[in-house]
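Batch manifest, entry 17 of 40.
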Amino acid sequence: MNYLTLFLLLIQVPATAILLSRLLKGPRRHPPIEPQQPTPELLGSVSVVVPTLNEALRISPLLECLSRQSYELREIIVVDSKSQDGTPDLVKMAQQQDPRFRLMTDDPLPPGWVGRPWALHNGFLHSSEGSEWFLGMDADTQPDPGLIAGLVKTAEAEKYDLVSLSPQFILKYPGECWLQPALLMTLLYRFDPAGVNTKQPERVMANGQCFLCRRRVLAAVDGYSSAGGSFCDDVTLARNIAAQGFKVGFLDGAKVLKVRMYEGALETWKEWGRSLDLKDASSRAQLWGDLWLLFAVQGLPLFVVLTYLFLSPSLSLPHSPTPPLLLVGLNVFLLVIRFALLFAIAPSYDRTRANGGWLFWLSPLADPLAVLRIFLSAFRTPREWRGRKYSAE
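Output type: C-alpha cells
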C-alpha cells in the first residue's frame, strides 16, 4: 500500500498543480458577452451559415431567433445535407417571412471530409463577399436578439480575428442533469477558462455552435479545408488559425446563447462524449497528457476518498500514516474544488424546466464515468455522426 500511495501522489500532485494554475486565471478572464444593439457601421457585416441534417425537431427556435437579429445580419445560408425529415420545408417557410434566409444543398461529400465542415465550407464559398464576418451556427442553438451585435462589437474592440462562445445549456431530463455537467467539466479541467486569452495555439479552445471569423481570415486559410476531416472541426480550425498568428478568443456566451444539444443521458453519452477527447485537433503527446490529467484530478478523487472511508481500518499503516493521510487530504481538496466549480458553472445551465434539476448538484458523482467516456472515445474513430456513416478509412 505504501508503494501504491506514493504512486498515486506522484500522479496527482503535478496534475493538481497544473489544474490550479489554470483555475487561478479565472479572475482575470473577459466578462461574459452582453447583448447589444447594432450601430450603423455594422450594416450588412455578417453572413450566418447553418449546417443541417435532419434537424426538423430542433431548428425552429434558431430560425425564429435569427429572424429577430437586426440589420447587421446580411444573410442566413442554411446548407442542408439532403435531410429526409422536412428540415428544408421549415427553412422555406422562414424564407417567406424573412428574405435573408437562403437554402442550399451541399455537393456530395468528398473523400476525407466530415459532413459538418463540408457544409460550412460550402456555405462560406457561397456567402457574400460584402460581409466582413462569417458566423457559423448550429441548428440546436437559440441566440439572443442582441447576440450578433454584441459578438461583433466585442471582437472588434478586442481585435479578435476569430471568437467563439460557450453557451448556456438547456437541461430537461434527470440523467442529463447528472451526466452532462461532468462531461463539460472534462473541458474545464483541460483548458483555460472561457474569457482567458490562451497563448499556445495547441491549447486554444473553440465552440462551433457559435463561431465568428473574419471573412478575409477564413479565406486566407482556404475555408474549412484544413479541418475537413476532423470530427471536432471547430477546435481544429481555431488552432490552425491561431498557429498562423491570428488572434483567437473563446468567451462566455451564457447571457446571449442557449443550446439544447441532446435528448437525455444516453444521447449525451453517445453523441457529445465521442468528440470531447479532441483527438483530431491534438498531438498524441497532448492527448495522453490530457488523459493523465483527467484521470488524476477528476477520475480518482472520489474513488480514493470512498476507499479510505470504507476500507481504512484494513488498509491502515500505523508505522507510516503520513503518506496515506496526505493522499486522502489531497483528494478531499480536489473534491472541494470540484463541488466549488459547480457554483462557477451553474450560470451555464438553464434548469428552469428540468425534471430532476437537483441532480446537477450531484454531478461530481458522475466524474469517473465522464473520464471513462473520454478514454473510450480517445482511441476510437467515429464511424457514424448525426446519422451519417463514414468508412473505416
